[in-house]
Amino acid sequence: MPEGTATIEVDFGYKGAAGEMGKGADLTLKINGNKVAEASMDATVPARFGIDTFGIGEDSGQPVTDAYQVPYRFTGSIEKVVTDIN
């Protein structure tokens, strides 16, 4: 990550048709408009589980990996978060 202000984008290309749940996805990570990584998921979570929600700046629920302890707060600053669903 560059120091200072950055725009981070994740393009999530779901492989299922509308209404299909749990299908895979293609992911593209961009920093300041430049593609820095691509990955593919074989499957996604087919439904919401538990009471965990989408957190910004911390993971206060179930961690996505055992590599850290919750709440694992981000100590920088987040100016704005935009979610664009197409």
Describe the structure.
Helices cover about 0% and strands about 25% of the residues. The protein is globular and about 40 Å long.
Average pLDDT metric: 87
- Helix and strand element order: EEE
What structural class do helix, strand and pairing data support? mainly beta
List the uncertain runs.
none
Number of helices: 0
Question: Could you estimate the helical fraction of the residues in percent?
Answer: under 10%
Q: How would you sum up the major sheet?
A: 3 strands, antiparallel
Percentage of residues in DSSP E strands? 25-35%
- Amino- and carboxy-terminal Cα gap: 27 Å
Radius of gyration: 15 Å
* DSSP strand count: 3
The largest sheet has its strands arranged as: 1-2-3
The shape is globular
Write the layout of secondary structure elements.
Layout: E1 8-14, E2 25-31, E3 34-41
Antiparallel strand pairs: 1-2, 2-3
List keywords for this structure.
single chain, 86 residues, mainly beta, globular
Could you provide a short overview of the structure?
The protein has strands spanning 8-14, 25-31, 34-41. It is mostly beta strands and 86 residues long.
